[in-house]
Amino acid sequence: MRRDVDAVVRVFESDEFSAPGLDARGLANAAEHLLRLLAPDAVLPAIAVLDHRDEPLEPLWAPERIEAALAQVGDAPDVLLWVVGLQDHYLAGSKARSVKARQAYDEAVECVNAYAARVQGRGRLTVVVL
Questions:
Q1: pLDDT at 83 over 80
Q2: Is the entire prediction scored with pTM above 0.70?
């Protein structure tokens, strides 16, 4: 299935009219569309995106950013909080071999999970960090 999705994305990327990229809302919409294509009869969670592609996680502002991301889905009872960009900041290239970088990444993931657990009063909240 991954090969099929990759093939579609490559066709789009090779198109001269392709878009420069997606913002957080665009990522959430794209993920929702893909999930609906792959599992048309499944009950899907609402998707909120916490976008860290352009800046690393800052623990001081993490609660505020998580709240803002979850606000995208309102009071949905089943939410997938998709955190994008953390691996790029902490584990890209030669950093992937660094114990210190891996530890910093693990701490960032723990931070996101801890703050997400604090705002849990909404039913089911699944956190996916990439």
A1: yes
A2: yes
Closest CA to 82 of 105, 107, 116: 116
- The residue whose two tokens read 């997938």 is 80
Per-residue CA distances from 47 to 29, 51, 95, 101 (Å)? 8, 12, 29, 28
Sequence-distant (≥ 6) Cβ neighbours of residue 88 within 8 angstroms? 53
Report the SS3 class of residue 47.
strand
Beta strand pairing call for 78-84 and 46-51: parallel
Beta strands in 1-130 (DSSP E): 46-51, 78-84, 124-129
| 82 Cβ contact list (under 8 Å, min separation 6) | 27, 28, 31, 47, 48, 49, 50, 128, 130
- Written as six digits, the tokens of 5 are 């999705």
Query: What is the C-alpha to C-alpha distance for residues 69 and 129, in angstroms, rounded to an integer?
Result: 14
Q: What b/e readout covers 25-40, taking b as 16+ CB neighbours within 10 angstroms?
A: eebbeebeeeeeeeee
34-60 pLDDT per residue, tens: 888 888 899 999 999 999 888 888 888
Per-domain boundaries in the chain: 21-129
